[in-house]
Task: inverse folding
């Protein structure tokens, strides 16, 4: 079978390409050519904002399926999907749980309310709102853009939450691994048994390919099951695989908030709002999603980092967010010292 990946050269797109090639797909990719393409793919370079580039891409078809990892603005997504509609059998678009109006405050299912966004919206749409609201709004618009261009029966909308694994560029898991590798007492946000639902990029890739091959249409949340892992599983795995003797000190979350510790950024993956790690993904599980243990994701990411792997660096775009993550050593030491004085 022939597969087109919009993206395909870094993190999730790369994982999809690797899993697809191993599964026997003939793979084409479409991206700017900023990052190295896998040698086994038929790489077409172009700009996702260019209608002409998409028309040129369409001439390389047909494909049994396309997996869209670069959908960001509804207008560009709609134009691209419209150009590809005659030459693809099924369209899988990567959206996000941010498309729900209730994230991160409320438990979510596929029936939860989503943002409204016209299919002709550009990158400036909803710019007056906060970053996450703007991102979720645009992603909701991209979902509708694909449905309108391709048709409901040929469209799968996947809504993952946090994605981890080798080649991660956001810097969440890499920060925890580097911190554990430094050893010593390591600040960790209590409670240790707080459930978390990150999904390995390779498991998301395998499920996306399953949807493409079987033409599973509809909207599907793609996270690890609720209860699959805890924050302690994450921290302990980082300490174990780095083998530097890091010792977690579990600190009261209310106290951390009083100290101005930034959730999601200064302590990556830590967030106390009720809906962050309460996403129902039972529909995906019923359709064949399987999730590896979080420790395996942690170990493989550390192997990548210590084996010469380096997170993608860009001055702009999502890769720049890696610099926003994590406590400095000085701030962590000061917080731990204050916490000990209270005990």
Result:
């Amino acid at each position: 079978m022939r597969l087109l990946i919009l993206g395909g050269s870094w993190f999730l797109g790369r994982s999809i390409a690797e899993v697809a090639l191993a599964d026997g797909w003939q793979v084409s990719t479409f991206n700017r050519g900023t990052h190295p393409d896998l040698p086994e793919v038929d790489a077409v370079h172009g700009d996702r904002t260019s209608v002409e580039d998409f028309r040129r891409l369409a001439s390389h078809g047909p494909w049994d399926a396309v997996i869209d990892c670069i959908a960001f603005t509804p207008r560009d997504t709609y134009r691209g999907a419209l150009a590809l509609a005659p030459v693809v059998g099924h369209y899988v678009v990567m959206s996000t749980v941010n498309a729900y109006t209730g994230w991160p405050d409320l438990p979510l299912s596929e029936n939860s309310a989503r943002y409204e966004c016209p299919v002709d919206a550009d990158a400036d749409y909803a710019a007056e709102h906060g970053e996450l609201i703007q991102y979720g709004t645009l992603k909701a618009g991209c979902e509708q853009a694909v449905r309108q261009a391709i048709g409901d029966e040929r469209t799968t909308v996947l809504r993952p939450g946090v994605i981890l694994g080798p080649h991660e560029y956001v810097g969440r898991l890499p920060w925890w691994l580097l911190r554990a590798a430094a050893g010593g007492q390591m600040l960790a946000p209590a409670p240790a048994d707080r459930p978390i639902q990150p999904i390995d990029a390779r498991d998301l890739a395998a499920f996306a390919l399953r949807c493409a091959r079987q033409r599973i249409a509809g909207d599907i949340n793609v996270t690890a099951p609720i209860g699959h892992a805890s924050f302690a599983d994450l921290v302990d795995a980082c300490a174990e695989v780095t083998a530097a003797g890091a010792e977690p000190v579990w600190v009261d979350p209310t106290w951390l908030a009083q100290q101005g510790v930034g959730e999601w950024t200064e302590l990556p993956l830590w967030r106390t709002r009720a809906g962050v790690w309460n996403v129902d993904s039972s529909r995906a599980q019923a359709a064949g999603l399987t999730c590896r243990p979080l420790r395996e994701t942690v170990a493989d990411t550390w192997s990548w980092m210590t084996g010469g792997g380096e997170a993608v660096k860009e001055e702009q775009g999502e890769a720049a967010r890696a610099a926003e993550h994590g406590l400095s050593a000085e701030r962590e030491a000061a917080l731990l010292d204050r916490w000990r004085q209270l005990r």
